[in-house]
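Good morning,

Attaching, inline, the backbone tokens for the sequence recovery test we're adding to the shared suite. The designed sequence is right after.
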């Protein structure tokens, strides 16, 4: 491994240590996990994925912002949410094989950490404890978002 790769893993590990998603991880576990993520810079207005696409990865927003959009019945794009640093996007694609439920567009230059389903499977096989911690954080995130959505539906009716 060259110095650039080691520096990249160290930077990813540092980023993970600051994300609430990984608050239950030890530094050793973060080190292991960081070797399974890739860091990407993405320009503003980039479409990360489109509603209906088949997906197999999620990403964490390191800096910048992304917008979650869906197509309305009148073929216009509705912005459902905007996510910034620390947020995870695309979690469902690690769990199921269904098409993406929304489109994601980068609204300003951003840096993202990507985790593929293949890498998550590898993590779970190589270190089941780390895999379980990740899946619990994933479940907490999805549960929180579902509760918020339920609250919004209650406000509408």
């Amino acid at each position: 491994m060259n110095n650039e790769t080691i520096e990249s893993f160290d930077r990813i590990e540092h980023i993970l240590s600051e994300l609430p998603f990984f608050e239950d991880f030890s530094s050793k576990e973060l080190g292991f996990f960081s070797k399974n993520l890739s860091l990407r810079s993405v320009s503003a207005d980039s479409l990360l994925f489109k509603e209906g696409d088949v997906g197999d990865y999620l990403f964490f927003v390191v800096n910048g912002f992304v917008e979650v959009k869906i197509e309305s019945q009148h073929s216009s794009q509705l912005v459902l949410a905007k996510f910034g640093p620390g947020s995870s996007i695309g979690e469902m694609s690690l769990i199921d094989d269904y098409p993406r439920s929304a489109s994601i567009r980068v609204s300003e230059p951003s840096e993202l950490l990507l985790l593929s389903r293949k890498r998550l499977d590898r993590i779970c096989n190589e270190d089941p404890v780390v895999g379980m911690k990740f899946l619990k954080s994933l479940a907490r995130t999805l549960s929180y978002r579902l509760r918020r959505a339920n609250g919004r539906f209650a406000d509408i009716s």
